[in-house]
From TrEMBL:
Keywords: Membrane, Signal, Transmembrane, Transmembrane helix, Transport. This is Adenosine 3'-phospho 5'-phosphosulfate transporter 1. GO terms for molecular function: 3'-phosphoadenosine 5'-phosphosulfate transmembrane transporter activity. It comes from Mystacornis crossleyi. The gene is Slc35b2. It is found in: Membrane.
Length: 431
């Protein structure tokens, strides 16, 4: 009933309150809510039989009664070794390498390498993402060209390359003994697919700078959920920075430019899709944190999640007949092929740079680099694609990033202070 009411409520808004580009109004098959349910049905056709099989093997007590050539595969997928770390931190990131006095120049070089790699990977990824989802291919003087509309195929391209890179890395390097049941990766995989799909789809309705600022303001719903559900306590500076972020985002969204085009209008659909991205992405990170209680490396996590991501997306694409259609689009437009491949390469390389940067310099340095990347991404998008930002909107962007840097500084100060606390005291929980 909720889905039906949501659909009925959104249709009049789409029809009357939004200006949608003609390319998005070709048919009901291009309506994002319809595509979402079709994709979800495709995933359910894999999830439901898998769930029934898992329940069947558990009820049969397969660990004691199972034999044969399939026993190791079923044991790994359904049961695992069930060996967890005593402390959650034991199964997360490997110990961070501490710099020595004699290697200062080397550490500076590593930091420049990490910063350059992250900036190049994700700035290129952002530019290509906006190009693929908002521009046409094959346009001539007589032909307006055509847009690529299937966001799920782009998710599949990203995941299959990430799966390949992570698999090769695990095969060529020594990794911890794997203990988690493989099926547990499917939860994070499913939410990761849906969050990525919402991210791509949202660009059909909102501008890229708006999307970046929405990601930056993700801390606000996280704090609200922690307060309402988990009764968490927060420091005064966390409330202050959250308020500054909300003010900055509001200034940007409410500022109006006289020559603002359809592509930069923040629509109802774009807001809903961004909300979906934030919700699914928050679940992904929390579920992955829970999985790290097993002894595993981040690359093993990357491999396990992307195995199921490839399975879900290719299954759904084949059921819809969209895989062959997307491949035919690639065959018609070589430029799109190059963009899609480069998009996947940047996504996979970016994940590896994330793991390496956190391992070498910690989460605070990584957060600073990625916050700068968000600011550069907005600037680059405005320069390349001509998004207009008013003076008020620019001030709003500045307020958001000032608040983000303030959070990083305050958190690092609180972390240092918590190390000096007496043994019986614990610091206030952070987000």
């Amino acid at each position: 009933r909720f889905c039906l009411l949501f659909l009925l409520a959104s249709l009049p808004t789409m029809a009357a309150g939004e200006e949608i580009a003609p390319a998005l109004q070709d048919s009901w098959g291009d309506f994002w809510l319809f595509r979402f349910f079709v994709n979800a049905a495709g995933y359910a056709s894999i999830v439901v039989p898998g769930f029934l099989l898992i329940q069947y093997f558990k009820r049969r007590n397969y660990l004691e009664t199972g034999r044969g050539i399939c026993f190791p595969v079923i044991k790994s997928c359904v049961f695992g070794s069930e060996v967890k770390s005593v402390h959650q931190d034991d199964g997360s990131l490997p110990p961070r390498a501490e710099p020595t006095e004699s290697s200062t120049a080397r550490q500076v070089f590593k930091l420049l390498f990490c910063a350059t790699g992250l900036q190049a990977s994700y700035l290129t990824w952002g530019v290509l993402q906006e190009r693929v989802m908002t521009r046409t291919y094959g346009a001539t003087e007589t032909d307006p060209g055509e847009k690529f509309k299937d966001s799920q195929f782009l998710v599949f391209m990203n995941r299959i390359l990430a799966f390949t890179v992570a698999g090769l890395y695990c095969a060529l390097t020594k990794q911890p003994r794997h203990g988690a049941p493989m099926y547990k990766y499917s939860f994070a995989s499913l939410s990761n697919i849906l969050s990525s799909w919402c991210q791509y789809e949202a660009l059909k309705y909102i501008s890229f700078p708006t999307q970046v600022l929405a990601k930056a303001s993700k801390v606000i719903p996280v704090m609200m959920m922690g307060k309402l559900v988990s009764r968490k306590s927060y420091e005064y500076w966390e409330y202050l920075t959250a308020a500054l972020i909300s003010v900055g985002v509001s200034m940007f969204l409410l500022s109006s430019a006289p020559n603002r085009t359809v592509s930069t209008v923040t629509t109802f659909s774009g807001i809903v899709l961004l909300a979906g991205y934030i919700i699914f992405d928050s679940f992904t990170s929390n579920w992955q944190d829970a999985l790290f209680t097993y002894k595993m490396s981040p690359v093993q996590m990357m491999f396990g999640v992307n195995v199921f991501s490839c399975l879900f997306t290719v299954g759904s694409l084949l059921e819809q007949g969209a895989l062959l259609e997307s491949l035919r689009f690639m065959a018609r437009h070589s430029e799109f092929t190059a963009h899609a491949v480069l998009l996947s390469v940047c996504s996979a390389c970016g994940q590896l740079f994330i793991f390496y940067t956190i391992n070498q310099f910690g989460a605070a340095v990584f957060t600073i680099i990625m916050t700068l990347r968000q600011a550069f991404a907005i600037l680059l998008s405005c320069l390349i694609y001509g998004h207009t930002v008013t003076v008020v909107g620019g001030l709003g962007i500045a307020v958001v990033f000032m608040a983000l840097f303030l959070r990083v500084y305050a958190r690092s100060r609180m972390k240092k202070r918590s190390k000096k606390l007496p043994p019986g005291e614990t610091p206030v929980q952070k987000v």
